[in-house]
Amino acid sequence: MYIRKPKGPVSVTLPNGQQMTRADLPPADTTRWVASRKACVLRAIATGLISRDEALSRWDLSAEELDTWLAKASRYGEAALKATAVQNYPREQGEKSPTAGSAARPPSGEQRLSWPQSK
Questions:
Q1: CA angle 71, 77, 81 (to 5 degrees)
Q2: How far apart are CA 46 and CA 44, in angstroms?
Q3: The predicted structure's pLDDT at residue 96
Q4: Which of 25, 31, 75, 83 has the fewest CB atoms inside 10 Å of its own CB, making it the most exposed?
Q5: How many Å from the N-terminal Cα to the C-terminal Cα in the chain?
């Protein structure tokens, strides 16, 4: 019996000092994307645990979907990844939010996360 060794590191250290491993990633058959799973995937890509291409193929994501997650998380923080946040945060193409006329801000106490920009 052979064990397939994944490409890239097996674990990485996050900026807050925690260890993240491939076992912490969402299952490959994930179809319900809650904010914590989206953030986990973005952290894995940002730290080099998995590549962007590997994430796209593993979870059958479109490049546009992943770019949207990345833009929202880098601009407004992890709270913007929630499905209900669509009403609270404006769209990136300059469209206004259906409920807010002014620029949205992250909730108080929420820090903006720094994600690498896509190439």
A1: 70
A2: 6
A3: 45
A4: 31
A5: 38
Neighbours of 70 (CB within 10 A): 21
Nearest-angstrom CA–CA distance, 89 and 104: 5
3-state secondary structure the chain: CCCCCCCCCCEEECCCCCEEEHHHCCCCCCCCCCHHHHHHHHHHHHHCCCCHHHHHHHCCCCHHHHHHHHHHHHHHCHHHHCHHHHHCCCCCCCCCCCCCCCCCCCCCCCCCCCCCCCC
Token pair of 72 as six digits: 């929202």
pLDDT in tens, 37-83: 999 999 999 999 999 999 999 999 999 999 999 999 998 888 889 88
With tokens 């097996």, the residue in question is 10
